[in-house]
Write a structure and sequence with these properties.
The complex is a heterodimer of chains A (260) and B (216). Chain A is mainly alpha-helical. Chain A has ten helices and six strands, in the order H-E-H-H-H-H-H-E-E-H-E-E-H-H-H-E. The chains are: A mainly alpha (260), B alpha/beta (216).
Chain lengths: 260, 216
């Protein structure tokens, strides 16, 4: 008989591809190959993967319905099986898959709802860090404020959408109440962060996503404000910054001048 | 390590595999029982025990197929692994029943052969009865219902032989009302108590016999 490594490779390949024949020498009590017995393993794995996705994407599942979701999840896992035993990490490519999944083409907002759910999981499992206490900024001299560089919270995630994905997500989570919305009424960007035990989800105004991304890249406050207001003239920096501080979007800051 | 934080009473893993190459195959997959796989499993267990700095328990699996190339009976294979690696064992009576029934072997004989002295924990669970392509019984380890009567009977036989060992009811799918799960736990408890008192009586009787013998 061939070495175990080779047998194992063959076993795994047959599990991943239902079109493949059952490997030789996997037998029933009579010593015969038995497809239904091997099918138990195929089925267990398919179900485990679908269940993992269903738990990670409950709003997507509620929007499309159980049966549609299972089919979508099965198609996704066939082309992108999990690579880690930590199944909360599974589904990073699910939103991108939904964009190309033709049966879902009539729900163009669906991939962005999936992105919000994915960001929620990432925020939930991100490294712990205390949020920056806004009072700590009081000591910064007024002529140094524009030099402040924020360290964004390690759990912070931004999801931009051309659709009202955040509203649709809120209406589709467990205690949400679905209501008619105007699908053509513009996009929504969302911020997710977990400063302590719970994930906080906030709507952010136009320009807000760009502003946070600039800060996250290490741009000093002054430069980030200037760039954002150049693109969004009515962006209210004071109000937005107060909201970011209040929801725990930052973990720290420095107010030294940039090294020249 | 997680094990340092929670300091569990026991650490166990199945005689099975779940990852291969880049994919995580979320199930407990079977292996052939040969000299080659024996060395492989022993080496892995030694690595685990060294990394964790403690003895692990190895659990017998549920299997749906057998490998034509196997040269060891499962209970002997597990016994030999335990001898070589120094690990202890977790006996899942439901798994033993499933694997034996699926290969039309006698579960009682399997359990009698299982190395009792190394068993530190017992698992019980419910299974689903299906049939294979030929209409023969195909039992599937589902953990979604009450423990089967035939498994209770085997459990009683096991603890009569090996004594009172901590026992876990595994019911983690279609989880029932607490009262139903509690009923299962109490049934295991009362069987353990009964076996404990039987064992105690027998050991008292043995001591008594020994005493008489000494006096005589």
């Amino acid at each position: 008989m061939r070495p175990w490594a080779e047998r194992q490779r063959e076993f795994a390949a047959a599990l991943l591809d239902p079109a493949r024949a059952v490997p030789e020498g996997l037998t029933d009590p009579a010593g015969h190959t038995c497809p239904k017995r091997f099918g138990v393993y195929r089925n267990n794995i398919a179900i485990a993967w679908i269940e993992a996705l269903r738990e990670s994407f409950p709003a997507v599942c509620r929007i499309v319905g159980e049966e549609f979701f299972r089919t979508a999840a099965q198609c996704y896992s066939a082309c992108e099986p999990p690579s880690s035993p930590v199944l909360t990490e599974y589904g990073a490519g699910f939103a991108r898959f939904l964009e190309r999944f033709r049966p879902a083409a009539s729900l163009p907002y669906l991939p962005d709802v999936a992105r919000i759910e994915r960001a929620w999981i990432e925020a939930y499992h991100a490294q712990e860090a205390p949020a920056l206490d806004p009072a700590a900024l009081a000591g910064v001299a007024s002529d140094r404020v524009r030099d402040i560089r924020f360290a964004v919270h390690p759990s912070l995630r931004i999801v931009r959408s051309r659709y009202r994905a955040l509203t649709i997500w809120r209406m589709s989570v467990a205690d949400g109440v679905p209501e008619p919305i105007d699908a053509a009424s513009g996009g929504e960007d969302a911020l997710l962060v977990r400063p302590s035990a719970e994930v906080v989800v906030r709507w952010i105004p136009p320009g807000g996503a760009q502003f946070i991304e600039l800060l996250a890249r290490g741009e000093p406050l002054g430069a980030a404000v200037q760039r954002t207001q150049g693109d969004h003239a009515d962006f209210d920096i004071a109000e937005h910054l107060a909201e970011l501080l209040e929801c725990g979007a930052f973990a720290g800051f420095s107010a030294d001048a940039a090294p020249s | 390590m997680l094990i340092d934080r929670y300091a569990p009473g026991a650490f166990s893993e199945h005689l099975a595999w779940s990852t291969h190459g880049a994919a995580f195959l979320d199930d407990l997959l079977p292996l052939p029982y040969t000299d080659e796989t024996l060395r492989c499993v022993v080496q892995h267990i030694e690595e685990v025990q060294e990394a964790l700095g403690r003895q692990m328990l190895l659990e017998n699996p549920s299997t749906y197929v057998a490998f034509a190339e196997s040269t060891w009976p499962e209970a002997d294979f597990i016994d030999e692994i335990a001898r070589r690696s120094g690990c202890a064992l977790l006996l899942d009576v439901n798994n033993a029943y499933i694997s034996c029934t699926n290969q039309q072997r006698d579960p009682g004989e399997y359990l009698d052969r299982f190395p009792a002295a190394r068993v530190r924990e017992i698992h019980l669970a419910g299974h689903f009865r299906d049939t294979d392509d030929e209409g023969r019984p195909l039992l599937i380890d589902t953990h979604d219902r009450e423990v089967a009567e035939s498994v209770w009977t085997l459990y009683e036989r096991v603890i009569a032989r090996i004594g009172s060992v901590p026992t876990l009811i595994e019911w983690d799918a279609q989880v029932p009302e607490w009262t139903e799960l509690e009923r299962e736990a109490r049934r295991a408890d009362s069987m353990l108590l009964a076996c404990g008192s039987t064992a105690a009586r027998e050991s008292r009787a043995e001591r008594a016999v020994g005493h008489h013998a000494a006096v005589g």
